[in-house]
Amino acid sequence: MESNIKIAASNSIRYYIAALITFFVYLSLTVVATGAFTEVNGYTAYNAEKNEVLYHYYYADGEDTKRAEYEAQGIEVSTVPLRSEVSGGAKIFTDLTGQVIGGLVMIGFIYSSLYKLGDSDANLAQFNHKVLDKLRGLKIGLLMVVPSFAAWIIAVIAKVGLISGSWYSLFRFMSYQTFTLINVIFGQQTSTTDVITWAQLFLGLTVLAVPPIIAEICYIMGYKRVNLTSKLFVKKDRKI
Q1: What is the C-alpha radius of gyration for the chain, rounded to an integer number of angstroms?
Q2: What is the per-residue pLDDT across 13-50, written as a single tens digit (0 to 9) for each?
Q3: What are phi and psi of 197, to 5 degrees?
Q4: CA angle in degrees (0–180, nearest 5) for 146-115-102
Q5: Spatial CA neighbour of 210 closest among 185, 235, 170, 175
Q6: This prediction's pTM
Q7: Is 3 left (phi over 0), alpha (psi -120 to 50) or beta?
Q8: Which of 95, 101, 222, 240 gives the lowest tally of CB atoms within 10 Å of its CB?
Q9: Measured at the alpha carbon of residue 147, what is the angle toward residues 198 and 113, in degrees to the nearest 5?
């Protein structure tokens, strides 16, 4: 058990680094998609001194007469461009691309460690030095997501009203490796803990099933000596 905890701890760090990388990758893709698939169609006018919204103006509405009225009152008007919405197709493409990259990063970070562990355990079991625990990868995967489960428990406590704060956002961010599943369950926009429903909160636990399943698959591939990389290279060499 102690060995599993140590292995899980090191892989857990990699798992949450993958969440951070996925977040920045998706943020970058969103910026690119916004620039490539939208256009400026107006602006939001602000009171520069008080930083409060005065009105929204769209080019399709014709000449902006409100700005002159506010400026005549001595109000300094500043503007921020308004862009059109990203199309559904572009949004799906961005989400899928981000999720594929995030998923590959997550798998890449934990694959080698658990594959080698499975291979090592198979060698020890072959020479009767230990009994092979075929669910060891799953157990390690469950230990990996203990911090996320702790964040979920805190979100439940906040939902009950015993503590304040949007603790759900922490759980969401820690699970960013699977952000498409998070978006399906909770919606695209980050919600506060008091807005999400109990059903959504408990469905959110399904996100924590992904890392243990991946960890178990990697471990099984190790003790069965299923090396996808070698197989791909061998097939390419044979074709050549």
Answers
A1: 25
A2: 999 999 999 999 989 998 888 888 889 999 999 998 88
A3: -85, 165
A4: 60
A5: 175
A6: 0.75
A7: alpha
A8: 240
A9: 130
